[in-house]
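Quick start: read one record
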Amino acid sequence: MATKDQRPKTKNCAKLQVYVNNHPLELLPGMTVKHALIKAGLLKEVESGRKVYDEWGNELGLAGALFEGIKIWVR
């Protein structure tokens, strides 16, 4: 078992707040649209043919980057 000094330090890790269908989610920097959809429980909907859009109506890919405050919708 890892000692206290060897444990990963995640408490002070910066987090992004993103919105999926107007529901706020906290994700770690570097996570993608796919990660946000997994956390929101919406990945299966996208896999069945629905699309992901940003707040300006642009279609997003699953590998798309996220940034603080981004709003995405599954339609």
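DSSP finds two helices and five strands in the chain.
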